[in-house]
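pinned: reference chain
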Amino acid sequence: MINTKLRKLGFCGADDSVSPRQLALVFNSYPFVEFGILFRPDKEGESRYATKHWVQELAKVARSSSMTLAAHLCGTRVNELLDGDDSFLSSLHPMGFRRIQINATAVNGVDTSNLEGSVQTLLQVIAKYSDLEFIIQKNDETRPLWEGILRSNSGVPKNVTMLVDDSKGTGLLASAWPSPPAEYDIGYAGGIGPKNIDKVLKDVLIAGNGRNIWIDMESSLRTIDKDGNDVFDLSKCFKCIEAVCDTGVYKHPQFMSCDL
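pinned: its structure tokens
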């Protein structure tokens, strides 16, 4: 278990309800934290889906703080990539995004009718951006996509990893966590949150079998505030950070390492 490396603790769905500066404060104390931003044009400005203005402010903070981010693409942003359109993708690296998650499922607003036929086009886009890591959401619905990548003549590109999420982004806890295959690294998602992260960490650090892994969460980080707004709750994020530090995989920064 102790040989497995938790490379990222992913908190997805940061939006206009939280200040980008607050995210930078967390990141600079815990650089293993990765904030994920959901991009889906038809939902922009709703809870979990940040506005363009907020993302621009986040990018400014990221540049000044060295914070790295993950772009979780949904809806037409995914279909653009599957069609070979990288115009939006090309804007992400300058804003601080280093990992790109492709959520190619219907619940995420994606036209999934031609996943198999889009494999080669997507691989061409991936090859063009070697400085980005592309995360393929791996589940039964996305099988035509990830199996097509596995079957490609060149094999799995070095900058491709996969997120094991049997819930297809709906936040249901997995019944088991598979070990990473030889060909690529994986992360784990689906129903993970402050209430169960202690057990999940123990399980995935064993399942990781000495490899580099990450975990990601979204729905469990939401709170309805006193005004009825659905907000991104940093206090829930911090409970997960504390759980990671309690395992000894990472430590609190020195100024917070006193016994409480």
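why pinned: Strands lie at 5-12, 33-39, 69-73, 97-102, 133-138, 160-164, 186-189, 212-217, 222-224, 230-232. Helices lie at 20-29, 52-65, 76-82, 119-128, 143-151, 197-207, 234-247.
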